[in-house]
TrEMBL record:
Main location as per UniProt: endoplasmic reticulum
Key words of the record: Endoplasmic reticulum, Hydrolase, Membrane, Metal-binding, Metalloprotease, Protease, Transmembrane, Transmembrane helix, Zinc
Domain Peptidase M48: 204-410
InterPro entries according to UniProt: CAXX_Prtase_1, Peptidase_M48, Peptidase_M48_N
Domain of life: Bacteria
GO biological process, one term: CAAX-box protein processing
Family recorded in the similarity comment: Belongs to the peptidase M48 family.
Topology in the lipid bilayer: Multi-pass membrane protein
Protein name in UniProt: Ste24 endopeptidase
Listed cofactors: Zn(2+)
Cofactor binding note of this UniProt entry: Binds 1 zinc ion per subunit.
Organism: Desulfoplanes formicivorans
Domain CAAX prenyl protease 1 N-terminal: 30-200
């Protein structure tokens, strides 16, 4: 077997095994003792239910991961990359169109294969735990809107990248980086106004106690807020959340309607304070800069791989081209993503600590944030005792029990200490 092909198969297998090991380690941490901080919001029955949910979700992800692993291994071992290329070429389009059609077929095939899993996840698994509120109509219309968006936005970006790699030799990666950066910034700033409203309704928060309390808090910490909007999250799930939309003078906070229903005004202010903390600590802009830097590295690596003819031959590609080069690069990217994923999760968790710290220091009583986090975790059936490896590699947020401990420690000391 070709050494390049063998190497890719080994990496894919390692990634798959790591996944199974992590999931199983994580499940081994489930114990029937309710963590101290949660004894007032969870009884034994509710806690057992949250653990059941963790088990079922974990098994689902292992089955799905195994299916995807086997599919990819089969596709590349049987020379699928080259066979598909030969077929698309035989249609007689120009090289750019061949590239777009090639990716279109791969993308559509992988999406169609994921539909049974998504249907099961939404209408069976989530339904069983009382989370699902999606109707079949919403499910399919989301899917169709997703296709349209991918075709328009993804098609344009892919077309530009393919064209640049075809036209410019050594500097292609710099041009691609520049164009992608422009694209990312446009999406970042344009999504709240043009993309999110395609999927959800956003309505201004009604006048009343909550709006007054939030406005008052924002003024106190010197945060200019264009508005507070309510998102109809209940259209898809009973799980709840809050997030930022917009930027500069147009920045808004979006609250899920499901969140407002079940929290006191003080708890909601605490949650908003955490979101304001992200903004005040410049996490949003830092995240964008990190994303741009990462894109630069990826394009540079891509340029190194693209030219290698032996590589194309290893995957059964007779005529090396930009689009097959991109797919082969995506496969070689597996080991790198195993490293980059945990690094970005590390920074994300660091940002969560900082936002908690900001909130705890600026709300009247840090215990409001603790209660809000506890109810959020209980309602969403969060795993309260994840394995440390699992947290290190997969979690974008610190485990809720540790967050509560850190907030209480800060409240006692009157100043924040290092996160545990
Ligand atoms: Zn956060």
């Amino acid at each position: 077997m070709n050494p390049f092909l063998l190497l890719v198969l080994i990496f894919l297998t390692l990634a798959w095994v790591l996944d199974l090991v992590l999931e199983n380690r994580n499940l081994s941490c489930l114990s029937s003792a309710i963590p101290d901080a949660f004894t007032d919001v969870l009884d034994a029955k509710a806690y057992a239910r949250s653990q059941d949910y963790t088990r079922v979700r974990s098994r689902f992800s292992m089955v799905k991961g195994t299916f995807e692993y086997l599919l990819v291994v089969m596709f590349i071992s049987l020379g699928g990359i080259g066979l598909l290329d030969g077929w698309v070429r035989s249609l007689g389009f120009s090289p750019l169109v061949v590239g777009l059609v090639y990716f279109g077929i791969l993308g559509l095939a992988s999406d169609l294969l994921s539909i049974p899993f998504d249907l099961y996840l939404t209408f069976s698994l989530e339904e069983r735990f009382g989370f699902n509120t999606t109707t079949m109509r919403t499910f399919w219309s989301d899917r169709l809107k997703g296709y349209a968006l991918t075709m328009v936005l993804g098609g344009v970006l892919l077309g530009v990248v393919l064209w640049l790699f075809m036209r410019t030799d050594h500097q292609a990666w710099i041009w691609c980086w520049g164009c992608t950066t422009l694209f990312m910034i446009t999406i970042h700033y344009g999504a709240p106004r043009f993309i999110l409203p395609l999927f959800n309704d956003f309505t201004p928060l009604k006048e009343g106690e909550l709006r007054d309390a939030v406005t008052q808090f924002a003024e106190r910490v010197g945060f200019r807020l264009a508005g507070i909007v309510v998102m109809d999250g209940s259209r898809r799930s009973s799980k709840s959340n809050a997030f930022f939309t917009g930027f500069g003078s147009r920045k808004q906070i979006a609250l899920f309607d499901t969140l407002i229903e079940r929290r006191t005004v003080r708890e909601l202010v605490a949650i908003l304070a955490h979101e304001v903390g992200h903004y005040k600590c410049k996490h949003i802009i830092k995240g964008l800069i990190m994303g741009i830097a990462k894109t630069g590295v990826v394009f540079w690596l891509m340029a190194q791989v693209m030219g290698a003819r032996e590589l194309s031959a290893a995957f059964g590609v007779e005529v090396p081209s930009v689009h097959t080069g991109l797919v082969i690069f995506a496969l070689l990217y597996t080991p790198l993503s195993l490293v980059l994923g945990p690094v970005s999760n590390f920074f994300s968790r660091k940002h969560e600590w900082e936002a908690d710290r900001f909130a705890a220091l600026h709300i009247d009583d840090p215990e409001d944030l603790v209660t809000a986090l506890k109810k959020l975790a209980a309602d969403n059936l969060s795993n309260l005792t994840p394995h440390p490896w699992y947290v290190a590699l997969r979690y974008s947020h610190p485990p809720v029990v540790e967050r509560i401990r850190a907030i209480r420690r800060l409240a006692r000391a009157g100043g924040f200490h290092e996160a545990p």
